[in-house]
């Protein structure tokens, strides 16, 4: 049976700390709903009603584009070992880019990475657990290191060039504004 809470309990925060992955869903009023899996050391509980997660550079930039138009965000955790449970966090998100004055307040909560693209801060308005009895059991092996190796090879300038070529427009054709919000020009540096 689903249970709803106005905020995270200590037990739910402890559950989150043990998880190796989570899923993020966003949408605008029209267009596709985006849902992405996330891993690594990229999630923090700030308070019972606030969480933050680090978004690394990737092939799309949908979540950041969506929250510029509609701040709704759902984050889901699943127990893949032990007792079954699904935990959903519903809230209003803001995307902090490198040009945001609040960037330094949050980026230091996470391991340093040249691939750091945005920090999402989510003010929770509902926390819900459900049974998850059909979620399969999985054995955790390790986090992948492919993104870290790729981004280290690219370096800061290579990542910024990737943003210019791959992260400026959502798959529904909306501007992500990543360059302006990160304090970068649209021109490639010589």
UniProtKB/TrEMBL annotation:
Recorded coiled-coil stretches: none
Domain of life according to the entry: Bacteria
Record-linked PANTHER family: PYRIDOXAMINE PHOSPHATE OXIDASE FAMILY PROTEIN (AFU_ORTHOLOGUE AFUA_6G11440)
Domain Pyridoxamine 5'-phosphate oxidase N-terminal: 8-130
SUPFAM superfamilies in alphabetical order: FMN-binding split barrel (SSF50475)
Organism from which the protein derives: Motilimonas pumila
Protein name: Pyridoxamine 5'-phosphate oxidase family protein
């Amino acid at each position: 049976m689903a249970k709803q809470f106005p905020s995270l309990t200590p037990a739910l925060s402890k559950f989150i700390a043990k998880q190796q992955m989570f899923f993020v869903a966003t949408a605008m009023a029209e267009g596709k709903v985006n849902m992405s899996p996330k891993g690594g050391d990229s999630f923090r509980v700030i308070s019972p009603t606030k969480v933050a997660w680090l978004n690394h550079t990737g092939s799309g930039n949908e979540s950041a584009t969506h929250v510029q138009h509609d701040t709704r965000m759902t984050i889901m955790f699943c127990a893949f070992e032990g007792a079954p449970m699904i935990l959903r966090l519903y809230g209003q998100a803001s995307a902090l880019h490198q040009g945001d004055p609040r960037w330094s307040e949050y980026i230091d909560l996470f391991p340093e990475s040249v691939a750091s693209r945005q920090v999402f801060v989510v003010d929770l308005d509902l926390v819900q657990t459900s049974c998850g009895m059909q979620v399969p059991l999985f054995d955790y092996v390790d986090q992948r290191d492919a993104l870290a190796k790729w981004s280290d090879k690219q370096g800061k300038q290579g990542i910024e060039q990737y943003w210019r070529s791959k992260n400026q427009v959502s798959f529904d054709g909306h501007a992500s504004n990543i360059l302006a919000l990160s304090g970068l020009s649209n021109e490639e540096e010589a």
